[in-house]
Amino acid sequence: MVASPAQAAKSECTSTGWLCEWGSANYSGTFAYWDPSGSLTTECRKIGSYYPRSAYNRAIGTYRYYSASNCTGSSVTVASYGSAPNFGFAAHSFRFLTL
Prior knowledge:
The protein starts with a helix and ends with a strand. It is mainly beta. It has a single domain, classed as Gamma-B Crystallin, domain 1, CATH 2.60.20. The strands form two sheets. It has a four-stranded antiparallel beta sheet with strand order 2-1-4-7. It has a four-stranded antiparallel beta sheet with strand order 3-8-5-6, with no helix packed on it. It is globular.
């Protein structure tokens, strides 16, 4: 089987417990990951240095990304062990929803 570029980039997210984000749709562009286990608060969190457009959640917990910096505007939810290949916007904030 030949991997598409989206599958190849998504494969960068290798560790259970990571919340992986990409700066472009379809798991491409700038790649960043973090362990959200210390961020299990429902408070709105502003995204500061880059604005993800796709995500793969290999962590426990559901997160919602928003187009505005105050957790308003368009949104997309990424469930535990779920993914969102194209938010349709650049995310400027997010919040933890539930385990």
